[in-house]
Automatic annotation (TrEMBL):
Protein name: Facilitated trehalose transporter tret1-like protein
Membrane-crossing segments per the record: 49-71, 102-125
InterPro entries: MFS_dom (IPR020846), MFS_sugar_transport-like (IPR005828), MFS_trans_sf (IPR036259), MFS_Trehalose_Transporter (IPR050549), Sugar/inositol_transpt (IPR003663), Sugar_transporter_CS (IPR005829)
Keywords: Glycoprotein, Membrane, Transmembrane, Transmembrane helix
Gene3D superfamilies assigned to the protein according to its UniProt record, in alphabetical order: MFS general substrate transporter like domains
Record domain Major facilitator superfamily (MFS) profile: where: 1-161
Keyword Transmembrane helix part of the UniProt annotation: yes
Tagged with keyword Membrane: yes
Organism: Lasius niger (Black garden ant)
Amino acid sequence: MDRGILRQTLIGFVCSILIIDCGLHEGWSTPTIPKFNNKDPLKVTTDEIAWIVNLMYVGVGIGSLVPFILMDNIGRKGTLLVTTIPKITSWLFIGLSTSVPLIYVGRILAGIGCGITYAVMPMYLGEISSKRTRGPLGNGDVSCFELVINVQCPTRFLASY
């Protein structure tokens, strides 16, 4: 195998991790909502559940505007690296939350990270890939996203949170 193709494939795999995280965030609410309704110590109303689910997409709207500022200043790769900050922080807020507003903040941060990822990753992969690998690398993110969503939903029966 050509060393350049191997390197491009590895970069595509690493970028797919960002998409996998977006899939985890988008699919997180489906198995979690029944947990909030049943036995979770954090009491959540129906309206709060609606906000928990939808605030991520508010963050996606905000996050899709951020790359216009960052891409030309720190480059596509640097922008993708910066994306990890709101993504990791969002999981910390969600996982360690003791109140609903902390979950709101976590979901907005998740959306910002995913909005940046959705805007920048296709451009970055298009820039680093050759004609031969551009198609498979471009489709890999969609495949990873769908796979994560389909695997995550049945796990609600196995996981406690």
